[in-house]
Each structure stands twice: as C-alpha cells, then as structure tokens.
Write a structure and sequence with these properties.
236 residues, Rossmann fold, Dihydrodipicolinate Reductase, domain 2, 2 domains
Amino acid sequence: MKIALIGFGKMGQAIAELLPAFGHEIHSTYSQKNTLTKEKLAGADVAIEFSLPQLCVENIKICFEAGVPVVVGTTGWYDQYQELVSKMTTDQALLCATNFSIGVQALFHINKELARILNKFGGYEVSIQEIHHTAKLDKPSGTAITLAEGVMHEMPQYSSWSLNPDSDETNKLMIEALREPEVPGTHEVCYQSEIDTLKILHIAHSRKGFATGAIRAAEFLYNKKGVFTMSDVLNS
C-alpha cells in the first residue's frame, strides 16, 4: 500500500521507519511545512493521521473529500467525533483509536472485565495514573480516558472522571496525569478496598508498539467503508 502520513512528528516518523518491513511505502508526508490538500492525496491507498487536536477534524474531512480511508491516532478532539461521524457518507472510511498498541488494547479488555467482577461485590475505589512525555498536549491522555470509560461502564457509582485531586465528589473517578521527559506512555489502574489492592499496569518501552498497531489498522481499513475501531482490527 501507499500510505500518506499526516503529521510527521515522532509518531509519524516511527511509522515511516516501520513501513518497509510491512511491505508498504510512504505516499507522502504532511506537516506545517507541507500543508495537506485533497489534490496531494491522489494515489494514496490509506492515510494515517497523527497531528494536533485543532487540525485533526479538518485533516479527516480532506481525506474524505479525496476518497482516502483514514486511520486517526490524534487524541483531544473527541468532543467533535459524534458530529463528524453523523455526517459521513457511505463511501467514506474512518478508524479511530486512543491507543494502537496491542498491549494497551489487552489492558482495556482486562480493565473492563476487572471492573465488572469487582462491581458485583462492591467496596472498591478506582483511580488511574498516566505518565507521558512533556510534549504531549492533551491531559489526560486518550488512553486514560478510555480506561476511565471502561470503569464507568461497569461501575455506575462513577458518573465522570476528574483531574482535580482535591475533589470530594465520590462519583468522580480520579485521574492523575503526569508529564515527564522521554516517557512514551505509562498507564496504571488501581482498585483499592479495605481488604486488598489490585493494580494493572502497562508500560510502553518505545513508540514501536503504537506504530505497529497503526500500520495494522491501515491494513485492515484498506478497501473498506464505514466507521471502525481497534476492536474490529483485533477481531478480524
């Protein structure tokens, strides 16, 4: 496949390095120095979008106009997701994920199942900690939000999440978002009761896991139409 890389920061570069090993090639790359247009996407099989939250939706729309399926890894724009999807036509294709790592996808599944089991018996308070590199703009990470949503789906005592450690609202799931130099991504979910503490942890050692998952998602989306997630990729 010929893959267009929209956003050529550290993630875009990591994907570019791996493409030849998967038998694919770079169609084109886009950054602030090379603005994305419909015309420039001619001949691309799939686009992978890792840009900025404020640019993401417009980039997706340009891909739609060009008839190019788009895999989106940018986070921090999901307040516009439902509106975007509601306006999609039947000949367009979109796959979004807050994290493309296969290990993180397993973490999502384990977290939700653990929340389901512990909710049956009660007595557990849940908190999440995430650590990312200092260049990451959105806080908390999309991965942390997905983990929180998994808990809230199974534990109705949590109606929302919060970054405010001083909040005394018991219905808020606390997320601690830390930023440290050169940290690809660490996520920990803690379930604590008077009896015991359970923790599940994922530590990314590099961006390779995210890049690999994004390429796998692009392979899945090739020649498809519709809206998909990483669950569709894993179950294909």
